[in-house]
Amino acid sequence: FSFNSPYGACDSCDGLGTRFEVDPELIVPNVDLSINEGTITPWAGGHSQYFKRLLEAVAEELGADPDVPWSKLSKKHQQSFLHGNGVGKVQVRYKNRYGRVRAYTASFEGVLPYLQRRHSESESDTQREQIEGYMREVPCPTCSGARLAPLPLAVTIDGHSIADVCGMSIGEAAKTLAGLTLSERDRIIA
Question: Residue 169 gets which letter from DSSP?
Fold first, then answer.
């Protein structure tokens, strides 16, 4: 019955009650910019040409214009860029420094899944902190912020789980516990 114990803690949030999720509004803060103008903020700017080329290849695969403002792209195209819907592997073409056209196949999982995966897999605190700039802390969807695994939450006394009682003020909890009517067996257990 403790979120500090691996036996009682929610598996999804490790007993924290919250988790970080990539926020699309932080990924695309300026909807008036196009893909080529850097509307997808984590992949714009000083990064290597890899992400720029990848986004251009995805746009080509989708039939989307990378020079159109984000707000003018269809919802389907926006979702494909963010979540990778309907994309998979794309053919990326570029010119090397000698002017030769080169091509390679790359997988595209979507910007949000990519950042979520990189955040969870990264061993670098600096990289995790950088990615957290595009994330929001939200209640855990599995335990709804209760921090406990389903088994301890399923145990109730008079319809209240331990998380319900812990969420009450001291006065409410005292009143609730004082008002319990326990059977002889439950009284011995208590």
Answer: -
In DSSP terms, 93 is beta-bridged to 103
Report if pTM > 0.85. Answer: no
C-beta of residue 12 within 8 angstroms of C-beta of residue 143:
yes
Amino acid letter, 36: N
In the chain, alpha helices (H): 24-27, 49-62, 75-83, 111-121, 125-132, 150-154, 162-166, 170-178, 184-189
Q: Tokens 């009650």 identify what position?
A: 17
pLDDT tens-place string over residues 151-176: 999 988 888 888 999 889 999 999 99
Coil, helix or strand for 21?
strand
Main-chain phi, psi angles of 128, to 5 degrees: -60, -45
Residue 9 DSSP one-character state:
B
Which class for 68: exposed (0-12), middle (13-18), buried (19 or more C-beta within 10 A)? Answer: middle
**Residue 47: Cβ within 10 Å count:** 11
Q: If you ran DSSP here, which 8-state letter would residue 47 be given?
A: S
